[in-house]
Design brief:
One of its GO terms (biological process) is translation. This is Large ribosomal subunit protein uL5c. This protein is an alpha+beta fold and 236 residues long. It folds into 2 domains: 156 residues, Ribosomal protein L5 (50s Ribosomal Protein L5, Chain: A), CATH 3.30.1440.10; 28 residues. The chain contains 7 helices and 5 strands. It is globular and about 55 Å long.
């Protein structure tokens, strides 16, 4: 394991801070292509971050104009982009929800805004979380996208403590590129882990897989776990 205070480590962080998109194009992509031509020999198979989706569910509180307006202002400050108000698709009487009822907010970031938000998230925002121990590697979905939640908005530097009436969190999804529709869940998750590791995303349990010598061993472990889950479900 490298010394976290080495010159190489500091230089890598400075490059990412300077321009994370440029570092991906000129640094990360060539390294993946050269070091693992079997997996990433085709440039279209190299994992890529397509967009970042940020969502906040307000529920019935969205009917309060002041709460909705303040949430829109917070989203605009944090992301640099005005959010879209999400509405219900159908009525649910048990939850007092009517059709086309305002329930939350969503923002989709692409291009330069996406990379600017990612840089802020990795190097500044996570450091503001008390007792932060990293994010779980188990939050990938079958397509290799990574979703996690933040409990409050105060960890972002754009938000002033005096302006917050109550802590409100949101869900953030990092949407990865899908090189092929035939890609297995294992390959999609592996591609997502590789990309986030190069971007220095704080995955706290990714080191679990370092004890295996090859991708084949990791794949076998996944297959055994899948078999055990199926066996358990069949017995229930």
């Amino acid at each position: 394991m490298r010394n976290p205070h080495s010159r190489e480590e500091k230089a890598e962080i400075n490059r990412l801070l300077d321009d994370i998109k440029k570092e991906y194009e000129e640094g990360i992509r060539p390294v993946l292509s050269i070091n693992n031509p079997t997996m990433f020999g085709n440039p279209h198979k190299i994992p890529r971050l397509k967009k970042i989706q940020i969502n906040r569910g307000l529920g019935l509180a969205a009917q309060n104009t002041n709460i909705l307006k303040k949430s829109i202002e917070e989203f605009t400050k944090i992301t640099g982009q005005k959010p879209i108000i999400t509405k219900s698709k159908k009525a649910i009487a048990g939850f007092k929800i009517r059709e086309d009822m305002e329930l939350g907010l969503t923002v989709t970031l692409r291009g330069q805004k996406m990379y600017a938000f990612l840089t802020k998230l990795i190097f500044f925002t996570f450091a503001q979380i008390r007792d932060f121990r990293g994010l779980s590697v188990r939050s990938f979905d079958k397509a290799g996208n990574y979703t996690f939640g933040l409990k409050e908005q105060l960890i972002f530097p754009e938000i002033n403590y005096e302006d917050v009436d109550q802590p409100q969190g949101f869900t953030i999804t990092l949407v990865m590129s899908s090189p092929s529709t035939n890609g297995t869940t294992f390959n999609n998750v592996l591609n997502g882990m590789v990309l986030l590791k190069f971007l220095r995303f704080p995955l706290n349990d990714s080191g679990y897989y370092e004890k295996y010598d090859s991708l084949e061993e990791i794949s076998q472990v996944w297959d055994r776990k899948k078999h055990l889950r199926r066996k358990r479900w069949s017995q229930e």
